Structure formats: structure tokens, C-alpha cells
Amino acid sequence: MGLISEAKLLSRGRDWRGRSRTPRSAEPWAPKHEPKEFPTAWARTPVTGIVRTAIQRGVLKPVAWSQTRVTVEGREYLDGLRGPAIFIANHSSHLDTPMILGSLPRRFTDRLAVGAAADYFFDARWRAFTTALVFNTFPVERYGSRRLRGLAGRLVDDAWSLLLFPEGTRSQDGWMNPFKVGAAALCISKGIPCVPISLRGTYGAMPRGRNWPRPGRPKVVIRYGRPMRAEAGEGVRDFSFRMMSEVTRLWNEEELGWYEALRASAAGQLSAPTGPKAIGAEETPAIEAAPATGTDIEAAAAGTDVVPAEPEDASRWRRIWESTRPLDDERPRPVWPGR
């Protein structure tokens, strides 16, 4: 390091190693300034909605469908659904949102807002503008900040349905992460249904680090479940666990078929799709209801996870290899059409 560079460091209150010469405990207190919120109300105006519909139906869906082989199942469960609802899904790829928006009937997508990480999609104005325009996103704080608390509830009050990913982030290796309980708390507090969705193949088609799907048109399966409502007296944690269990059942339908997955779920024999385990580890325990403790809404605000105890995971390369295995076209079919 030259003499001039060292002089600059010293003038900024740093030593020659770049460290502060003033202990943090001795620094004067200064109020913490929250970053300014990016406005998104403009994205929900009628004119912007027309532009967004043209982009989604005329550009986004044709491109996504041309790069993958998409199968959509269970959409008939949405026929009787009216009013705002919360759509939840497992999350492992940036393809997840375009796939869901492209598979939903237009009567839902015209009034659908998508929760997006405030620290990722709203950290730069150009990215915030693009995602708000194309996907009608609104910022969601992932790390406990109260700056945007209540925005999702206000959207529901305005008759907007929401698409949320309860895991809070994309999976690192294609397998499911623990569910946060915020989506369940919102369903209970607003008295609206939840629609579970399982996505298979999106991680293999476009995993983290890729900006375009892999060549070869990999298969993607989007599977909708029946709308769910919280039962009388059901707590937030219990309902969140039931939501995760239903996504798990839909996930397992790809290998087991609808009937066998339903039987296994009723018998408590389904395991959360959290990936292969280390050699010698016991099987992942079947999902069981977690007891509700404390004030459920407060737990939701704290971002509590809902996940069963598990044995040690297998090595990262094996987990990724398993999650990117191509989906089999000759899987078990439903016992009868329409299920």
C-alpha cells in the first residue's frame, strides 16, 4: 500500500489495515434510517393491468411454455373459488412465478399480487419497476423489519388475491425449506381460503444461477390442490403445518399417483420433500401436526418455521443430482378422471 493510500485511510478514521480506530461502543448514537419504500400502487391501476396482461399472455407465457414441457393438473378445483384467496407454492426457481401465472385462469391473474423479497427485487429501482410491471409484485420483508407490515392485509381488503412462497426464499438445491407461518396467519385473520400448489421440475429447468431455462425443454408439472380453510379454533402453526402437508402430498403425487399419495397422507406416511439423507441416516419422519404454543399471530410476525425434525442431509452434490433428475412421463395416473 502506498503512502497516499495510507494517508487516505487515516483521514477517514481507519488504521493501515482498514479497521476503524474508534470502538463501536464509543461511537455516538444515530437513529437507524429505513430505506425508502418503492411505491407499487401504480402497478395495480387499470391501465397498468392491461399492459401486464398483454406482457404475460403475449410474451411471458409463450416464451416459458416454448422452453419447457408444461403439465397442469388440478385446475378444476378452482372452478368454485370466488373472492380473494392466497395461493401458496414451494419455491426453487425464478420460473415458479411465470409458470403459476401462465397456468391460472385469467379471472385470478387479473386480481393477483405476488409477494417478492424486498431486499432482492426492490433493492434497485429498475428491478423493482420491472417486476412490479410484469408480475404485480409487492415487497415482503424477510428479516423481521416492520416497515412493510400490513401491506399484504391491505391488498386482501381491496379484494386482491395473493401469490406467496411460504419458504421465504428459493431452495438452494431444489428441495423444500421450512414454511414460515405468515401466509397461514393472513388466511386466518382475513377469513380467506388458501390454494396449495406443487411445482416439480422448475429447479431442474432453471436452477439458481441461470437466467434462462436449460436446453431440451425439460418437463415441468404444476399441480393444484383443493382450496383449504382454517378450521374453527385452529391455530396459525397448525394451519401452516396442514398447508405444508398438502403441498407435500401434491409433490408426492408425481411418483405415487393421486390415489396412493392420498392414502399415504391419510395414514401419516408421507415425508416432507427435503431431499436425500446421509448414508446410514434414518428415514425422514412423516409429517405430524405441531402443537400450537403462545400467541399464534405473534409467532407469525416473528417468522417462525414449521418443519419436522430430520436426520442429517446427504452431500450437496447428491441432493442437487436427485432434484434435477428428469420427471418420468410414465408415472402412475389417477384412478379416475377428474379425481
UniProtKB/TrEMBL annotation:
Residues 85-202 form the Phospholipid/glycerol acyltransferase domain. One of its GO terms (molecular function) is 1-acylglycerol-3-phosphate O-acyltransferase activity. It holds the Pfam family Acyltransferase. CDD domains: LPLAT_AGPAT-like (cd07989). Keywords: Acyltransferase, Transferase. It comes from the Bacteria. Residues 14-38, 302-339 are annotated as: Disordered. One of its GO terms (biological process) is phosphatidic acid biosynthetic process. InterPro entries: Plipid/glycerol_acylTrfase (IPR002123). This is 1-acyl-sn-glycerol-3-phosphate acyltransferase.
